[in-house]
Amino acid sequence: MSFREEHELHKRRFGRNLGLALVLAGFIVIVFGLTVVKVTRGDGEPENATAVQN
Amino acid sequence: MSDASLHSQASDRDAGFADYFALLKPRVMSLVVFTAMVGLLAAPVAVHPMIAFASILFIAVGGGASGALNMWWDADIDKVMTRTAQRPIPAGRVSPDEAYAIGMTLSVFAVIMLALAANWVAAGLLAFTIFFYVVVYTMWLKRWTPQNIVIGGAAGAFPPMIGWAVATGGISVESVLMFTLIFMWTPPHFWALALFMKSDYRDAGVPMLTVTHGRRATRAHILVYTLLLAGIAVGMGFTAVGGPIYLLVSVVMNALFVYGAVAIWRRDETAAQADGYRREKSFFGLSLLYLFLHFGAILGEAALAPYGLGGW
């Protein structure tokens, strides 16, 4: 099965697919941003982790 | 049925992205976003902008998901009422099964993501809000009692509490006060709408107060609830979420709101029909401004607090 040939369905649902793609891309950016913030702040680390290191 | 007929039927009812977005009730979502944001920013704990943004977004998605489930369950009612007949399901653009799948998926997604982004208290409140709106209000109260929007209004009142919980990880007097403001505001807001939507609710078999107790009783209920709301709203000006700005806004807005409610109470149906329910429609419009300005004032007090200006 080839993906090159564009079916009529692809044209008809282009707007819907584009919208979903943008939503998913936005979600990836948000999860990445949240991860950076939480890792930078040390969220999720045991509270006595620094005490043990010291 | 042949393949050809299946295809032609599918093409007739193919939904665009905007139809799926409409399932999330964007106008209701804007109110959810605004009040949740005020709850979050008014809290005495600073939240990282990224976490605040993501949390508000997930609260909005959760609110939207409950809207989709509401449309799935109420498709039969929406089809009858002129105000809702063009929604995606009754208009035939989105199937009920699709709306159910989207609603359930986004509900679970929003709750889990809010828990990961903020905390489990906020996520638990969001889950309860979705449950309350879909099961308690939509499935149970709406078709059963004229008190449907009085009790069901709690669902729309939770967002500032969720926003507050995102920041503080808990529930406090201030967040309950913001809840109470929206809870008391909801009945006069919706009863004004029911007055000028005329036969919509009767046709759909929804026991709104206008249908079960008549329009005269509804006008009296609007006045009583508005007076109760005014007492609570102005009283809030002397609490921790209030301050001089809030108090000024609240006194002015409540004076206008009570004036509007008295005018509605004094009118009879003949006068209302003669001018196309002008007074009821302006009261409904004023109610939206009322809530926006009250929460705007709470936000203003919180924003000025660091400079020693906000609050008492």
TrEMBL record, chain A:
Transmembrane intervals: 20-37
Top-level taxon of the source organism: Bacteria
UniProt keywords, alphabetically: Membrane, Transmembrane, Transmembrane helix
Protein name: Cytochrome C oxidase assembly protein
TrEMBL record, chain B:
InterPro entries according to UniProt: Protohaem_IX_farnesylTrfase (IPR006369), UbiA_prenyltransferase (IPR000537), UbiA_prenylTrfase_CS (IPR030470), UbiA_sf (IPR044878)
Transmembrane domains' residue ranges: 28-47, 53-73, 99-117, 123-141, 148-171, 177-197, 218-239, 245-265, 286-309
Pathway(s): Porphyrin-containing compound metabolism; heme O biosynthesis; heme O from protoheme: step 1/1
A GO MF term: protoheme IX farnesyltransferase activity
Keyword annotations of the record: Cell membrane, Heme biosynthesis, Membrane, Transferase, Transmembrane, Transmembrane helix
Membrane topology category: Multi-pass membrane protein
One Pfam short name: UbiA
Catalytic activity: heme b + (2E,6E)-farnesyl diphosphate + H2O = Fe(II)-heme o + diphosphate
Any GO CC annotation of this UniProt entry: plasma membrane
GO biological process, one term: heme O biosynthetic process
Principal EC category: transferase
Compartment annotation: Cell membrane
Superkingdom: Bacteria
Location (main, coarse): membrane
The protein's Enzyme Commission number: 2.5.1.141
Stored HAMAP family: CyoE_CtaB
Further remark: Carbon 2 of the heme B porphyrin ring is defined according to the Fischer nomenclature.
Protein role: Converts heme B (protoheme IX) to heme O by substitution of the vinyl group on carbon 2 of heme B porphyrin ring with a hydroxyethyl farnesyl side group.
Family matches, as PANTHER family: 4-HYDROXYBENZOATE SOLANESYLTRANSFERASE, PROTOHEME IX FARNESYLTRANSFERASE, MITOCHONDRIAL
Record note on quaternary structure: Interacts with CtaA.
Family stated for the protein in its record: Belongs to the UbiA prenyltransferase family. Protoheme IX farnesyltransferase subfamily.
Protein name, per record: Protoheme IX farnesyltransferase
Taxonomic placement: Bacteria, Pseudomonadati, Pseudomonadota, Alphaproteobacteria, Rhodobacterales
